[in-house]
Amino acid sequence: MALDLNAFAAYAKVVELGSFTAAAEALKLSKSMVSRQVSMLEDELGVRLLNRTTRKISVTEAGAVVFERASRIVAEAEEAERDAVCIEGAVRGRLRINAPMTFGIRELGPVLPKFLARYPELVVDLELNDRRIDLMEEGFDVSLRISALLDSSLIARQLAPVRRFIVGTPEYFKTHGVPKHPRDLADHSFILYTQVQRPELLEMQDAAGKRLQVELKGSLLCNNADAASAVLMAGQALSLSPDFICYERLRSGELISVCDDWQFSPLTLHVIYPHTRHLSAKVRAFVDFAVEEFGPGKAPWIGPLDQAAKKGRK
């Protein structure tokens, strides 16, 4: 038996106000709709709830019992709705966040204390990984992702752009020489990031729009930039590195960038969350925080990036 809450609400309002007309006005429904809902409830229960005449209605014995229960059911449903609205309106509960491993450690982790201090009733459940996730299937509320193409079933708020640089140590270039043209990169050893399709294929274009593809040789294949950092800093290979990873070492001179007149396909940091009619307060709070910390022009690596690249350029 599948009883409709709306039918209980219609019946309770008819008994409370004493007429179908008054109930229809209170519920903002047509009189015929209210009458149909009450009749459907009677059919489902298999009992007559109201005696109807052209002049008045009266409640049967069974109807009185159902009215008491229906009133309680409707009141509890309304209370549950109010509680849900109250909970959703407050920034509290558990917020499940997913983010890339290196970005989460280097950039998100250091600003989380500020977020938690701002919302002391919130519990953050942070999971870091570099694989492609199904946000809804895996139960995440929100995700930070660095990508070019995104699932259209999700809402993606653009944050900071992410540029990439070909970088290596001064020692590497002293030993192996400095590539003068992107085609020369094919003669060098690279760290290849295996979380992307065809990591050995490097695509780029110059300022005039001329496109070029170079097939790279990998001395190390790895799914995490931090894990490969020792090989890079030991001067054993070059790396195509995102700006938020390499800008400090470019600025200090520990790394040098090459082929800077060529650009790679643009990437963007996004904060991603499911389509929903009512966005919860906790998700909205994190989205606003992500824009505050990593929005266009606000990300910590953006300000010193150009100066860093200029200093560490060959």
UniProtKB/TrEMBL annotation:
The protein's matches in Gene3D superfamilies, at most eight in alphabetical order, are given as: 3.40.190.290, Winged helix-like DNA-binding domain superfamily/Winged helix DNA-binding domain (1.10.10.10)
Q: Which organism is it from?
A: Parvibaculum sedimenti
Q: What is this protein called?
A: LysR family transcriptional regulator
Checking SUPFAM superfamilies in the record gives: Periplasmic binding protein-like II, Winged helix' DNA-binding domain
Classify the source by domain of life.
Bacteria
Record family assignment: Belongs to the LysR transcriptional regulatory family.
Q: Does the keyword Protein transport apply?
A: no
- The answer to whether keyword Manganese applies is no
